[in-house]
């Protein structure tokens, strides 16, 4: 991956080049399209990044111009309407949604230069090595060990629920660097090369039959100290920032009525008049209302936080989303009756994209079970709401002050 | 299916100011113990409280236009008032007179609107409180200008000076106005005595014809009632959540605040989620009514289906999570449970609204 490492040349009088309003930014995008018409995808995307038209909200030199986030959608629309090459954000969601903002906030200049451009262009796919068999909801309990060895770190342990690990070039990694301090203080955050020979990626087959996720075994993986993100011992703080981005990602944004699972199940209802029954109708309408209220809640949350990031209130959205999806998909199988007894395919496949509303009703039912687990279980979300929003006391805990190595495993 | 509109679901500064003024007056004149005394027949606090809201704050004619003596505000502001009335379980005829009756009268040129807006006359639409905007409308018979019949379970009639009466004619439903002094208004022992219902008996009384073809006006009044009842239900649910959270932080058992137990925390997190969702539904209904949106009927159906049940759920959780004290007469939780449950049955009820909604959004029952 040598060509992507070259550093874009910075203009000397950067401040003068910064678009001052949205119209100017749109003109810049249109000019860019004229100048780079017909280029191959990688060349075009690298140039778009260098022109500050990738993430317009990111600083100059990092794919943007430090402009308002709200302007991004206009720029994206211009490029999309022109049919220009896409960086295929759907296959690099972890990179774009989680790794990039974390690197931007906590990375060194060198790390930002090295990683942001190929991440944005899609030349380097990222995955996330956080969860472990013994560190799910209690993420701070990670036991993957990173030991210092000269200018390098040697990492050994096991990670799980890693989507995209099988085609990722890099990973954001949370590992324990000090077992003698309380657990939250002993972790460090790394940018890990997934092509290292010490990495073994194995598909993790799930209840749907397919394997969206992987188990990742790390045996003496070497990571240069220059790829440590943030200070030694700051891993928890940085991982928390990464996960705040995940919630935004999973909670969903404003959409049209009957978008998502309700649209699928309502369509099934309309398509199958012979399957209609009063009890199914009552339940469908209850869920239709729940889905519509979720949509309105999302709209309201968006209006509340015009600057992008919802607070812990976003947890309520995800809670409702999971519950409604699970009940809807269960109902859909009952509506289908005999047809609900058939399943499309149990073959172990590795989907590149996961569409919760995709495939068949049986798949949707099984896949929706993950909605209340992934990105924070519903139980953890209820703790977040009750403690951070309602101000209720936390349960008494023994694991915050003792050194990590002394905790019962 | 009508298209959903993109409306402001938050509160404007003006709405926040209005809320503060209403809340202050309710804190002074709507004591929970006085509200509880309504159940024992002491209605003495009702008149001064209504005078304060209707006349001193000028809320009686909040949604009536300025040229007819009102404040010229919209349903958004009325919704904020109703949130506060719900939070205080206030026993006043704002919803029945200032929203439902006022909306029903908007297309008439009657001077009744002016005296309603001035707070001089309280008006009630004479229909059972359980009537949905899309139901067949019960009506009173008329013979040579004289009204005869009984309408049961009417909300706002106890406080009303003038009753608006749907009357069956050969052409459809007409609307008459009758002075409450000329009919027999029998208050009934109600599940919710903060909105006490009455049976109204017409025995050959002469009424004043307000509208000959009144079905649309009556349905519009009821629909406005549905849209804004959701905000009252939101206010009830918010009070229940806040009072319960405060209680479980304070109440200690097993050596610690009971609010630290996950069994309670998770239930309250669910109440919070329901309250926040109800806020979105109620604001959307109020904003749709204010904007005269094409989506109003769907917005009302969603708000009533959802907020009715959420207010009941929040009140039931409040009683349970308060433990023994929540079951006592002394603690106000029961006032909210009774209001929430009666509100759920009002203006159609969630089941009826969901069935109506199904037709509106093309999900047929059969």
> What would you report as the Rg of chain B, rounded to the nearest angstrom?
20 Å
Q: Assign the structural class of chain A, choosing from mainly alpha, mainly beta, alpha/beta, alpha+beta, or little secondary structure.
A: alpha+beta
For the biggest sheet of chain A, the summary is: 4 strands, mixed
Specify the CATH architecture of the largest domain in chain A. Up-down Bundle
* Largest interface (C-beta under 8 Å): A-B, 46 and 47 residues
CATH C-level category of the largest domain in chain B: Mainly Alpha
CATH class of the largest domain in chain A: Mainly Alpha
Q: Tell me the number of structural domains of chain A.
A: 3
Can you tell me the CATH superfamily of the largest domain in chain A?
A: Butyryl-CoA Dehydrogenase, subunit A, domain 3
Oligomer category: heterodimer
Could you say which structural class the secondary elements and strand pairing of chain B correspond to?
Answer: alpha+beta
Gyration radius of chain A, in Å: 23 Å
Terminus-to-terminus distance of chain A: 41 Å
> Biggest sheet of chain B: strands, sense, closure?
8 strands, mixed
What fraction strand of chain B? 15-25%
**Largest sheet of chain A, order of strands side by side?**
1-4-5-8
Based on CA inertia axes, which overall geometry of chain B fits?
A: globular
Unreliable spans of chain A: 1-14, 249-253
* Amount of beta strand of chain A: 5-15%
Task: Using the coordinates shown, work out and report the CATH topology of the largest domain in chain B.
Answer: Butyryl-CoA Dehydrogenase, subunit A, domain 3
Keywords (chain B): FAD, Flavoprotein, Oxidoreductase
Family (chain B): Belongs to the acyl-CoA dehydrogenase family.
Cofactor (chain B): FAD
Protein name (chain B): Acyl-CoA dehydrogenase
Walkthrough of the structure:
The complex is a heterodimer of chains A (409) and B (366). Chain A contains 12 helices and 8 strands. Chain A is of the alpha+beta class and 409 residues long. In chain A, the strands form 2 sheets. Chain A has a 4-stranded mixed sheet. Chain A has a 4-stranded antiparallel sheet with strand order 2-3-7-6, with no helix packed on it. In chain A, strand 2 (145-149) and strand 3 form a beta hairpin. In chain A, helix 3 packs across helix 6, helix 5 (93-106) packs across helix 7 (235-251) and helix 10 runs antiparallel to helix 11 (361-368). Chain B has 3 domains: 13-121, Acyl-CoA dehydrogenase/oxidase, N-terminal domain (Butyryl-Coa Dehydrogenase, subunit A, domain 1, Orthogonal Bundle); 125-214, Beta Barrel (Butyryl-CoA Dehydrogenase, subunit A, domain 2); 216-360, Butyryl-CoA Dehydrogenase, subunit A, domain 3, CATH 1.20.140.10. Helices cover 49% and strands 15% of the residues of chain B. The radius of gyration of chain B is 20 Å and the shape is globular. Classes of the chains: A alpha+beta (409), B alpha+beta (366).
């Amino acid at each position: 991956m040598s060509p992507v490492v070259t550093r874009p040349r910075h203009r000397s009088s950067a401040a003068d080049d910064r678009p001052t309003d949205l119209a100017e930014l749109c003109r810049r995008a249109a000019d860019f399209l004229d100048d780079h018409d017909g280029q191959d995808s990688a060349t075009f995307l690298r140039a778009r990044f260098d022109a500050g038209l990738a993430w317009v909200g990111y600083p100059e030199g990092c794919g943007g111009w430090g402009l308002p986030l709200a302007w991004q959608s206009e720029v994206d629309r211009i490029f999309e309407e022109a049919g220009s090459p896409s960086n295929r954000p759907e296959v690099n969601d972890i990179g774009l949604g989680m790794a990039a903002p974390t690197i931007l906030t906590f990375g060194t200049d060198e790390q930002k230069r090295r990683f942001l451009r190929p991440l944005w262009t899609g030349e380097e796919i990222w995955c996330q090595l956080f969860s472990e068999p013994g560190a799910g909801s209690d993420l701070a309990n990670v036991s993957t060990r990173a030991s210092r060895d000269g200018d390098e770190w040697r990492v050994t342990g096991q990670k799980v629920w890693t989507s995209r690990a099988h085609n990722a070039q890099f990973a954001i990694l949370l590992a324990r660097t000090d077992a003698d301090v309380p657990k939250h203080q002993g972790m460090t955050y790394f940018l890990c090369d997934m092509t290292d020979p010490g990495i073994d990626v194995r598909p993790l087959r799930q209840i749907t039959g397919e394997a969206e996720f992987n188990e990742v075994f790390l045996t003496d993986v070497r990571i240069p100290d220059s790829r440590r993100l943030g200070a030694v011992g700051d891993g928890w703080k940085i991982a928390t920032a990464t996960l705040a981005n995940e919630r935004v990602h999973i909670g969903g944004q404003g959409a049209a009525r009957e978008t998502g699972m309700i649209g699928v199940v309502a369509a099934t209802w309309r398509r199958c008049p012979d399957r209609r029954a009063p009890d199914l109708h009552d339940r469908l309408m209850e869920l239709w209302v729940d889905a519509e209220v979720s949509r309105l809640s999302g709209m309201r949350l968006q209006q509340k936080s015009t600057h992008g990031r919802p607070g812990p209130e976003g947890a309520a959205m995800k809670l409702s989303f999971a519950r409604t999806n699970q009940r809807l998909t269960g109902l859909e199988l009952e509506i289908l009756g005999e047809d609900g007894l058939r399943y499309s395919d149990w073959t172990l496949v590795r989907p590149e994209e996961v569409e919760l509303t995709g495939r068949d009703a049986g798949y949707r039912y099984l896949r929706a079970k993950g909605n209340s687990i992934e990105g924070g279980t519903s139980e953890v979300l209820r703790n977040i709401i009750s403690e951070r929003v309602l101000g209720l006391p936390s349960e008494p805990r023994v694991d915050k002050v003792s050194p990590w190595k002394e905790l019962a495993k | 299916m009508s298209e959903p509109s993109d409306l402001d679901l938050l509160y404007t500064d003006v709405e926040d100011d209005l809320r503060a003024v209403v809340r202050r007056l309710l804190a002074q004149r709507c004591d929970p113990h006085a509200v509880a005394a309504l159940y024992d027949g002491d209605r003495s606090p009702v008149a001064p409280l209504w005078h304060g809201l209707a006349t001193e704050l000028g809320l009686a004619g909040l949604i009536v236009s300025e040229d007819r003596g009102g404040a010229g505000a919209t349903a958004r502001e009325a919704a904020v008032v109703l949130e506060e009335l719900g939070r205080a379980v206030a026993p006043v005829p704002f919803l029945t007179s200032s929203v439902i009756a006022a909306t029903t009268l908007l297309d008439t040129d009657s001077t009744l609107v002016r005296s309603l807006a001035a707070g001089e006359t309280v008006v009630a639409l004479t229909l059972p409180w359980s009537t949905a905007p899309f139901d067949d409308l019960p009506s009173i018979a008329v013979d040579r200008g004289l009204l005869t019949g009984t309408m049961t379970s009417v909300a706002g009639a106890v406080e009303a000076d003038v009753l608006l009466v749907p009357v069956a004619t050969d052409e459809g439903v007409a609307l008459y106005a009758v002075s409450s002094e000329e009919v027999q208004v029998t208050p009934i022992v109600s599940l919710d005595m903060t909105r006490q219902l009455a049976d109204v008996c017409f025995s050959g009384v002469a009424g004043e014809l307000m509208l000959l073809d009144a079905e649309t006006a009556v349905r519009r009044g009821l629909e406005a009632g549905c849209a804004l009842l959701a905000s009252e239900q939101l206010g009830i649910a918010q009070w229940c959540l806040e009072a319960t959270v405060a209680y479980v932080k304070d109440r200690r058992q097993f050596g610690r605040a009971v609010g630290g137990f996950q069994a309670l925390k998770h239930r309250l997190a669910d109440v919070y989620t329901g309250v926040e969702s109800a806020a979105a539904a109620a604001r959307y209904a109020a904003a749709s009514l204010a904007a005269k949106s094409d989506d109003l009927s769907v917005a009302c159906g969603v708000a009533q289906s959802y907020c009715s049940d959420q207010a009941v759920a929040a009140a039931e959780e409040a009683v349970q999570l308060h433990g023994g004290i929540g079951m006592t007469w002394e603690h106000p939780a029961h006032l909210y449970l009774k209001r929430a449950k009666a509100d759920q049955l009002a203006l159609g009820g969630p089941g009826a609204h969901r069935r109506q909604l199904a037709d509106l959004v093309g999900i047929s029952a059969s």
